[in-house]
Amino acid sequence: MTVLWEVSFECGNKVGGIWTVITSKSAFMQKHFGNNYFTIGFYNSQRTEIVQKTPPKFLATAFSKLKKKGIEFKYGSWVDANDSNIILVNAKKFMGLRVDEIKSKFWEEYQIDSLGAGHDYDEPLAWSYAIGMLLEEVSKLRPDKHIVQLHEWLSAGTLLYIHSKGLKLPTVFTTHATVLGRAMGGSAGVTNPEENAKESGVTAKHLLEKAAAKYANIFTTVSDSTGDEAEKILGRKPDVLTYNAMGSHDIPDLAKLMNEKVGFRKKIDDFVRSYFFPYYPLNLEDYPVIYTAGRYEFFNKGYDLFIDALGKINERLKQDNYPGWFLSFILVPAGTLGVKEEVNQNFAFYRRMKEVLKEDIEKMGEDLYSPEVSDLTIEKRVGEIMVDFKKMKARLETRRGKKPPLCAFQLSENEANDAIIKRLIENGLLNRVEDRVKVVYYPIYINKQDDLLGLRYKDFLTAASMGVFLSRYEPWGYTPMEAAAYLSAAVTTNTAGFGMVTSKLKNSEGIHVADISKGCASVEKIIEDFVKSDKEARMSLEIGAHKTVKKNFIWDKLGERYIRAYSRL
Fold it and tell me: 129 near 105, Cβ under 8 Å?
């Protein structure tokens, strides 16, 4: 019997992409290991992803013994990971007692220089070292075959504890992006890893990660590019490439998405009416919705390339007297002080106008069924409705001659200093009547309670037409994969792990891989060809993107790479 222990700082503690990897992969792992699949994570009192349960006897015994050493545990089901078994480790007290001793030990045994390291190093070191102590106790109490799957440098303390003690616990270490690679935006500028780590202020983390890669029984990375990066920076070529994927249960059926797309698209239409119609009318019959999304890393995420491409397309479409237009959202969270008052007023008035007209029409409909109502009364009622309509229309158009704002929200910082706003203005993307590219910078996380769009992020993906993600450094890239799964055509890059794998597929309809070395020129053509296509052609690409992900990027297929790694132990 084989027991798999999956260790990550993000188990039960959502921080970034590894949480998505493990939660989406959990159902696949349960198929292979059943109830012998355990996840181990960091205890964060602010998270509520666990339903506590009574631990099995062997765990309860280990927990009790280690509690005397300042380590506390919570056991239960991880709700977001298909109710997988989860252990959350609270090593705060243990860190205060032992972290300096652990750092000294790792210096003596592995030459890990952590003299200048701070809390962001000490906390995961103590936490992961404590997990090593737990697994040592567990292996004594349960003499099965154990495999320890570890993610990223934060779990490296577990691996080095196991190695230092000579425990019979085979380890698999997976790096999703090297510490130094993240710090320097890839390995291109790395000349001397140790020197570069020192210059970047990540010496302790880098050396800890390097030692883990060296002493792991099996070393894996999530993409070809990360594999090359690891070989250059960590000095070890990965044994297996464990590509990322999505759970098949996380990807809705095409028929469901097609049906939902109609309703979600109506919400974007309503947004456009509220946001743009006070300034000028737009034809809503057939317009593409293009977007980008991600963390506010202006250069790394390629927002400069995206905006530059939009600017050039806008100028060409104007010069060609192109009759259509398209809407572009920039979904990049930043500090905000709330919705702009101008936008609030427009939305409030539009909604009130709809309510008034709806009430008028409903009242007239009731009157039609009343035998006491004469034709003259009905004519009078119609006249009153028309008067109301004209008054509200005139009120709605009070901003004619002005331009809709580029950003829907009041930024915390001076808008003139915001990199996205500045780039939009430099590219002449000003939301003028004549601009064929309309832009809305939306600097908050989309959610259903949002007063303007009223859509969840995944609903927005389904409603939209194409997602453009131009990362210069991206170990994998879940955003374009997720966009495609939810019925958006997608653009990724040849520097992203997902893009590299996609470019090797025989058929990847609807998912485009832009050559980042060509700047915005490569993506310009992709976007312009897409928006100039008719609605049926665009829909064909959106469906093709969905099918590409569902066929090639699900854990039922790619999860076998992890199983292959385990079979080598």
Answer: no
The CA distance from 72 to 91, in Å, is 7
Question: Do 148 and 128 sit in the same domain of this protein?
Answer: yes
41, 8 Cβ separation under 8 angstroms: yes
Query: Which of the listed residues 403, 433, 452 is the one where a domain comes to its end?
Result: 403
pTM: 0.90
Three-state DSSP class for residue 440: strand
Domain boundary among 358, 386, 403: 403
Contacts of 273 (CB under 8 A, 6+ apart): 284, 350
519 phi-psi bin (left φ>0, alpha ψ -120 to 50, beta other)? left
Task: Say how many domains are in the chain.
Answer: 3
Average the pLDDT over each of 265-274, 283-292, 379-388 and give the range with the smallest value: 379-388
Residues 198, 302 share a domain: no
| More confident: 381 or 452 | 452
Residue type, 81: A
Residue 140, domain extent = 2-245+557-567
**Segment (H or E) for 228:** helix 224-233
DSSP structure class, residue 118:
-
DSSP, residue by residue, 350-393: HHHHHHHHHHHHHHHHHHHT-TT--HHHHHHHHHHHHHHHHHHH
Tokens 């002080």 belong to residue:
337
**Which is nearest to 55 in space by CA: 42, 45, 40, 69?**
40
Q: Same domain, yes or no, for 74 and 223? A: yes
Q: DSSP letter for 246, please.
A: B
Q: Which two tokens stand for residue 223?
A: 């993409």
Do 280 and 211 share a structural domain? no
